[in-house]
Design a protein that fits this description.
The complex is a heterodimer. By secondary structure, chain A is mostly helical. Chain A has nine helices and no strands. The relative contact order of chain A is 0.17. The chains are: A mainly alpha, B mainly beta.
Chain lengths: 273, 128
């Protein structure tokens, strides 16, 4: 039971962090009435995950057609795009907020910005959602004494429940930060999550034979941190840590930051004009 | 780029732009897929997942040549092929086959496992 609990909990942590940050952000800018866009995005992702994990739905046939590796990488790339947009936009908003007081009483959130928030909530949950549904489905289908199966499924569901609790904890925790530290901390976290997702996307494409790894493995740090350990799997899932990375994954990970920082500077410059 | 008035300092953002271009442009040119490593005759190995076990539990390959692992999930439940040493993880639905590409490897023993059934689904790729 503990084993299944840990597996699903690990898969929900990243989504929990993203959702917690989004909710805290909305509250910080006085828009808590728009929480429903976040919840809606997350709920849609749960439904979509079930559809894509299903055996014979159109959605799962789409996955079969383009291949699991390519499908995974497309989801990850979409998530990176939305996350990057989110970081740049939050940074932009942060500069408009003077000190502790909002310079405008209620910053109007444009329709497309709300949809961006919902989309981010969606991809955050959907990324691991399909895998989690597949895992739970496998648990429920297995043969064996009913008591055993029930315990395992309960463990799996418990992991998800803890993930939801953690989203709430992140929301509360980040909410306590003052504005400047909040934007700094969440900005950095989201950037590292995005870099991890980008290199994971590249990893999937390497696995599917679309990209060359260049040098693999570049190093072996499993003695330092192993992906199978609890801490290791968290760092791997959240920030894309790998004990035996390929050179291409590392280059992409590192190369992501100058790109985003350039975009951020450009926004800052445009604001200053 | 619009012309700068005399005396106006160049903005710092362009330093990041240069970094981004210096990094990504050569990368795109060198590593664009058509120009990337050509498909040599890869060794193809077959693995089957049955009763939450890998069959065979040990597969062998030659060092110095790229490898393709064709993993078929013959179980009615999904499994996730995962290996830290090989840097690969891939969910495989029941009845489906997935091709996992590996580069040429050094001689040694590379462990892999099924993340959904780690106690029984374990295996090893031996390269010599």
């Amino acid at each position: 039971m503990l084993a299944t609990f840990v597996i699903t909990w690990r898969e929900t942590i990243e989504a929990a962090l993203i959702i917690g940050i989004l909710l805290a952000y909305l509250r910080k800018i006085g828009h808590h009435q728009e929480f429903r866009y976040i919840f809606g995005g997350a709920a849609a992702a749960v439904v979509a995950s079930a559809l894509f994990a299903g055996a014979s739905s159109l959605a799962s046939r789409l996955v079969d057609w383009i291949g699991e590796a390519l499908f995974d990488s497309l989801i990850l790339l979409a998530a990176v795009a939305v996350l990057t947009y989110m970081v740049v936009w939050m940074h932009h908003n942060a500069r408009e907020i003077k000190g502790e007081l909002l310079s405008k009483a209620d910053q109007a959130l444009a329709r497309h910005q709300l949809w961006a928030l919902g989309t981010l909530a969606f991809v955050g949950v959907f990324r691991e959602g399909v895998e989690t549904v597949l895992f739970l489905w496998g648990l429920m289908l297995q043969a064996g004494p009913v008591a055993n199966v029930t315990l395992q499924v309960a463990g799996g569901l418990g992991g998800i429940a803890l993930g939801i609790v953690m989203a709430w904890l992140f929301f509360k925790g980040f909410g306590h930060l003052d504005l400047k530290p909040f934007f700094k901390v969440t900005g950095v976290l989201l950037l590292f999550i995005a870099a991890g997702m980008l290199s994971s996307a590249v990893g999937r494409l390497i696995s599917g034979g679309w990209l060359p790894p260049l040098i693999e493995p570049l190093w072996d740090t499993s003695w330092l941190l192993n992906e199978r350990s609890l801490v290791g799997s968290l760092v791997a899932g959240l920030f894309g840590y790998r004990s035996h990375p390929s050179l291409l994954e590392l280059l992409v990970y590192v190369g992501y930051f100058p790109l985003v920082l350039f975009w951020l500077r450009k926004e800052h410059h445009d604001l200053a004009q | 780029m619009k012309p700068r008035p005399i005396g106006q300092a160049r903005r710092r953002g362009s330093a990041w732009r240069r970094a981004a271009v210096l990094f990504w442009l050569p990368a795109a040119i060198v590593f664009w897929p058509p120009g990337a490593s050509p498909a040599l005759a890869d060794q193809e190995l077959v693995l089957t997942i049955k009763d939450h076990r890998f069959q065979p539990p040990e597969v062998r390959a030659k060092a110095g040549e790229p490898i393709i692992l064709n993993v078929t999930n013959a179980d009615p439940t999904p499994e996730e092929f995962e290996s830290g040493a090989l840097n690969r993880e891939q969910v495989i639905r029941p009845g489906h086959t997935v091709s996992i590409h590996l580069p040429a490897l050094k001689p040694g023993s590379y462990e892999f496992y099924g993340e959904f059934n780690p106690k029984t689904a374990t295996g090893r790729l031996t390269v010599e």
